[in-house]
Amino acid sequence: MSLVRLPFTTHHSRLVLIAGAALALLAPWGVAQSPTGFVLDFSEAELRMILQHGPWPPPPATDPSNRVSGRPDAIALGERLFFEPRLSTSNTVSCATCHDPEKNWTDGRKVAAGLAEVDRNTPTLLNARTQRWFGWDGSNDNLWSQSTRPLLDPREMGANERHVARLVRQDAELACRYEKAFGARPSDDDEAVLVDVGKALAAFQETLVSGRTPFDAFRDALAKGDREAATRYPMDAQRGLRIFVGQGNCSLCHFGPNFTNGEFHEVGIPVFKKTGGVDWGRYEGIKKLRASRFNLLGKYNDDAARAPGTSTRYVALQPQTFEQFKVPTLRNVALTAPYMHNGHLATLPDVVRHYSTIDPTLLHVAHVYFDPLVADAVPTDTLLKPLKLTPLQISYMVAFLETLTDGNPPRKPAPAAACP
Amino acid sequence: MLRAIALVLSLAVVPAAAQDCPGLDGARKVESERYVLSYRTQPAKLAVGQHFSVELMICPRNGQPAPDGVHVDGFMPEHNHGMNYRAATKPAEGGRYLAEGLMFHMSGKWDFIFEVRGGGKTDRMTHSVVLQ
Predict the structure, then answer these.
(1) Chain B residues with CB-CB distance to A under 8 A?
(2) Which ranges constitute the DSSP H helices of A262-364?
(3) What's the CA gap between A326 and A265, in Å, rounded?
(4) Looking at this predicted complex, what is its ipTM?
(5) What is the reported pLDDT for B18?
(6) Which of A252, A256, A379 sits opposite B108 (nearest CB)?
(7) Which domains, ranges and CATH numbers included, belong to chain A?
């Protein structure tokens, strides 16, 4: 790796040698005063990949499938419901039990536990609104149906439609907030009220967006040609970033401003569940998605044209979806340990070491368990190869990933004002 | 005279030869032994992780049968995987076809794969694009 030495004074400007597009971006710096510091000589291809990870945050947008998306009254109701333990049959479990704002909207556990332990790790809710698929297996195509899933799961909140609807109808505060959000009192249709609860919860979660990070400042500095700002980004993080967009091929899946392409991949994590059997991931997720009456092709999609349902209409159920899980965001990743769909890896260095030593022959092994004849039919994805990183390179990668942390204080629940 | 009438009739029922088939404006062309296929995407500039559709025009070469079906797919040869979505293709106005639901979910080299059925056989054509 070569360094671009930034000049302390104008007579050092000859030391500035930056390749490709970076030259055009950074050329004006050659005659500027700048603080001590360095910027790696990122190639044109590297710069292109780096710039794709921004800008951040994304512009505000509402969900056309949710008629109350973005409405303050619905957001307030959703926030109230999010922290409401009476939605569970035991009156002890709320959404916040697993999605704890103090823990970056996760729970710090290997696998989540509501009324009982489940099979998967709790993903963060930050930036959920930018997603196409929800849940590790993408069994939901919208945030409001995903929000009803844990309410109804016997191991999470254990409720049913009637329980949820009755609480919203009978609790004066919730009924009042519901009317303000949806323009009418909760109806007698339990399922419709459940879906509306999901839509209010979604409206609240859409407001959970991670803040700007040291990486964003660096990325924007490169985009603007602001060398002085760029030099503030730690050198180890720059080295890790170079691996991330280059040798590591990480940005192929962790693509774009939210560091995920929103799709699914098998990455060699054991898929055998503690409770027995195999977690088929995306394969089962697609089957659940298609069977769901709450998907975007159904009547609860508030967009009359069903326009957001394109992905659901055309998603393919194919053998390679066995054992695939969603590519998670990496924003605030240093705050969301443990990692992977089942919390199999405890720390960020563990994750990097996993990709450094991954054995491609162990990919797709559960296909054989499922059906010995299937494995041969599954194309072998050749993307994942052991990166063979040195301990120093692993530390660079971790340094880079840590710069994706926003440093924002945990969000506090809104004070419980009376309604109206 | 009879010969002339027969010629006119045959021109009426035989699909336009490739040289008489203009294809689509601003389209890319790929060819097989029997067909010349032109295609363009909507939107024209593809983006990683965004759905797009493909508009196609298929011109049989002289004497070749008209297509009776077409399938469009995508594949990343360097990764040995395809798309996560299965496009649906339907006939459109003016002898065109429209394939909907495609998505390239990674940057890099993708092969468009066109399979054209006609006369009981299938022709396979590919065209590479690089998504950045």
Answers:
(1) 48-49, 51, 78-88, 100-103, 105-108, 132
(2) 282-291, 310-314, 348-357
(3) 6
(4) 0.86
(5) 56
(6) A252
(7) 3-57+211-233 (no CATH), 61-209+282-314 (1.10.760.10), 234-270+322-408 (1.10.760.10)
